[in-house]
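Lecture 7 notes: from sequence to structure.
We start with the chain below.
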Amino acid sequence: MHISNKIISLRKRHWILDGTRKLLILFLISVLSFQISAAEWDSEVSVEVRSFLNDSQRPNQKNENLSLSFETEFYHDWDDDNQRFVFKPFARVDNLDDERTHFDLREFYWRKTFENQNLDLKIGLSKVFWGVTESAHLVDIINQNDGVENLDGEDKLGQPMVNLTLDKDWGIVDFFVLPYFRERTFPSLDGRPSLPFRIDIDNPVYISGAEEEHVDLALRYAQVFGDWDVGISHFSGTSREPLLLPSITATGLSLTPFYDQIEQSSLDLQATLENWLWKLELISNSGTLQDRYTALAGGFEYSFYDLKESGIDLGFIAEYLFDDRKELSTSTFQNDIFIGGRFAFNDENNADLLAGIVYDLDNQTQFFSIEASMRVGQNMKVNLESRFFTVKDPTDLFFSIKDDDYIGINLKRFF
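Predicted structure tokens for the same chain:
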């Protein structure tokens, strides 16, 4: 199926959540009531090409992949900037993977600031990021991963929420009510990289009888103490990380996503000491069907500024990742080290590069990544992304994608 025909095949499950359709209508009506001169729009169109360096073991997978994406953001401030509407849809069309052809509302919310009470209220779909480490984001639990976008877990689906933020001298407190759960997205068997079995995303299993309508809750406290940034959080609700249970269907073996109910407490720390950044993320997690476990990611970044008077800055990064579930862990990082470097060229094109390797201390699996970007003129940007795998242990979670080394180029146009 050609990329131009795939627009009509966007899956129904990825369209606007039922609970937000009425909000969308109200939003569009409100937009019409705004003065056109008050509206602000930022948009981008991108073309992405991925070239896989090895032939796949599955016949439907190809070595070349092309996709187009579009993202736009409408925002409007009024009431002396104390109120804001944000509408940020995203869509991708992929020439190989029907699951990667999808639509999502990344953000769609109204925010009200109550200045006298140092209080913010946000209602709608939004994205929230927690965490400080480079190699893993253990404490970042509010939003669901958009698993068809990338392996790094940094692309997120919009999360319906009511978020109340209290900003005081003694710290910032965030309270979240999350009334609807977003299921994780997965590539199809035609996509690369992907698991070797079909993911039955149409029939997920929930331990909660409320299923995706279970109301999740989260609370976070953050404060700066001298050189230390401290965050303490707790989440109670549906796990964002599904277990994949094997099942036999008419088409053969498939994996069914199972979503448990969990309690997760977390701590994130970052100390800024001259050229040093010391970082730690620590979680304690228990589920209805899972014993309590502890996981952490921690290390440092040391910055060398203006190397040999070249204007280039280099940040050397070293982190350790641990999960005490060991071989039962659903994470690929249970006893690993990450070594990397971040280059900022500080030139007129705003060029940067991040390269690093994750090394498994148990089975010697290696995952190498390169990300680079630079602006081209005023309205364009080029991103380079490469992933390489060295996997010998069949029990490693990376084993199924060991042949999926790729180099990707993404060209973005802003307007």
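Points to note: Residues 1-22 have pLDDT under 50 and may be disordered. Residues 18-33 form the longest helix (16 residues).
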